[in-house]
Every structure is written in structure tokens, then in C-alpha cells.
Amino acid sequence: MRAFLALVCSLTALVAAPVLARAGDGVAILPLVAEDAQIVGVIDVKDARDAKMFDQGVQLMLDRATEMKDMLAMVGLELKDVHTVLVAGRYGSSGSMAHIDQNLMAVVEGGFTKKKVIKALDAIAGVQTKKKRGIKYWVTSYAEAAIIGKRLVVTMVGGMPGVIDRAKKKAKGFTKSTKAAALRAALAYTDTRHDSWIIALPPTGLAATLKNSLKADMVSYAIGVTLESSMTLEVKVQTKDVAQADALLTSLQGQLKSLKQLAGQVGLSNLAASLTVAADADVIDLDATLTPAELEKVLDLVGMVNP
């Protein structure tokens, strides 16, 4: 597995099943994100370390995403060094959530010195350096890396010039381009105070499933997680209009008892007891709480094990 894909997929797994937490909400990094991004996620580490689930969550993540630790080590970092991580990208040709492998980028904030990272990048076998708009970046066969301001940025090959253009305000990105309007709308209904959050346009398969099974058009979705002694999970889905949201809410409320029974049967009793569903205009809001053991079970159920 290519090292950069391993890094980004690992970080994406972290966001999609978030196990870290709390501090800066990552919004200040968004100008670096491309205008055509379909998924953006932020994980906060710095202020998470006092959360009761932090150690368990980190271990669960590392058990399933060991390449993240290896990639951080390659650039001279350890997990303890990191403050905030942002990951953005597009779905692959399959249109599946399991294949977020186009235009990937990761931004890491905090805890490291520029000198330390540069030394590690210079030591990578076969690495070359380039420069654009006065910013030096390192190029390998599988990724590109740069320090932009006080942030470490990693992209797929060919992606760094665009990031530099956006950093220098020479190109429009997520925060300014009209092409990103739908995903920005998802940001507007997302509580970025969560320890970890993700906003996304629906992959083809997920949108089709919702349309076929619940007769609703999925415009975007968001996931937020807060860690304390347990994990609070909030999932929001934006539909085409208020009428669709009301109809979907009625359908979900009718199935809530069955959903809770199913969750209890697979060992998710706390999730089952806490699961609620509501609607606010055209957005459906599902909330639940998981214990550490239930988090591990959910990760296993969704198959978040590296191939």
C-alpha cells in the first residue's frame, strides 16, 4: 500500500469513526482545501488527552491504522506531537465511501519544529525538492509535502501546487468558490465544537441506498463526535427539502423500536438506549452514545481493519 494513501485512509478512518478529540475546530485550515473536495474531516488531539476514552480510542485506531504512526514517523513526528489534523479529498471512480482516493490532502498542526520535519523529509530515499511562489516542497514517488506557515501539508503527487496557490490566495478553494457551495452548506449545520467532525457530499452508493429504501434525496451529511467517559455521536443528513425531511423523520421514528432492538442484539445496548432522531428544517439529526467496548464493536462491524 502506498504510504500516502495509507496515511490519508488512516486519517479518514479516524474521522469517519472518530476516536480522538477536542480543541481547535479546524475551520481556520479550510482555505487550503480544494474547491472540488467531496469530504472534509477534522480531528483534534491536543485537548483530547484528558478525555477518559482517549487512550482506549487511540489504541483502537492504531490497531487498525498502523500506517498513520509510520507515516508520522517518516516526517519526524509522533502521535503525541500532533494538535489538529484535517483530511480532505474526493471519492474514487467506484463512488464508494471505502474509496476516498482522489485529490487527497492532509494538514497537520502543532507540536513539531520546522527543523525537525525538514530533516526527516530530506532523509527520505529518492526525495526531490521543488519550489512554487517561494514555498519549498518535497516530492516522492507517492506524495508531496510542504511546511506552509506552521502547518505540515501532505498531498498526492501533483497536489501541492494547488495548495500553495490557495495558501497564497492565488486560487479559490473551499471557502470562496461557488463550486464548494453544497459542502459549505453542510458546514453551516455542523457543530464544529465537536471533538471530531466530518462533512461530506454523499457517495453514489449511499445516496442511492437512501433514495431506494427511504425515498429521500441525500444532499450532504455530517458526523460529529465528543469524547468524555463515553462517546457521543451525532449524525446529520440534509435532504432536498423540508417535506422530505418530515417524511423521513416519520419513517425513521416508525422504525426506531426495531433499530434499537437490532442494536441491542449485536451488543450495542447503550447505543440502543440512547438513540434518538429529530428534524430541523431539511436536516435529520440522529444522536446516540457509545461505550468504549461498543466503539470497538462498531469499528469491527463496519470493517475498519486495514487490508
Describe it for me?
The chain is an alpha+beta fold and about 300 residues long. About 35% of the residues lie in helices and about 25% in strands. A twelve-stranded antiparallel β-sheet has the order 4-5-6-7-3-2-1-8-9-10-12-11, with helices on both faces. Helix 1 (about 5-15) packs across helix 3 (about 65-75) and helix 2 packs across helix 3.
Keywords:
10 helices
Please specify the SSE layout and strand pairing:
Blueprint: H1 3-16, E1 39-44, H2 54-64, H3 66-74, E2 84-90, E3 102-109, H4 114-122, E4 128-132, E5 135-139, E6 144-148, E7 151-155, H5 160-167, H6 181-188, E8 196-200, H7 204-214, E9 218-227, E10 231-239, H8 242-265, H9 269-274, E11 276-280, E12 283-290, H10 292-301
Antiparallel strand pairs: 1-2, 1-8, 2-3, 3-7, 4-5, 5-6, 6-7, 8-9, 9-10, 10-12, 11-12
Helix pairs in contact: 1-3, 2-3
Q: In short, what is this structure?
A:
Helices cover 36% and strands 25% of the residues. It is an alpha+beta fold.
The total count of helices amounts to 10
**Mean of residue pLDDT values:** 79
- Tell me the helix content: 25-40%
Shape: globular
Largest sheet: 12 strands, antiparallel
- How many distinct beta strands? 12
> Gyration radius, to the nearest Å?
19 Å
Helix-strand string: HEHHEEHEEEEHHEHEEHHEEH
Strand order, sheet with most strands? 4-5-6-7-3-2-1-8-9-10-12-11
Tell me the strand percentage band.
25-35%
Q: State the low-pLDDT regions, or none.
A: 1-23
> Can you tell me the number of structural domains?
1
Secondary structural class? alpha+beta
- The N- to C-terminal Cα distance equals 9 Å
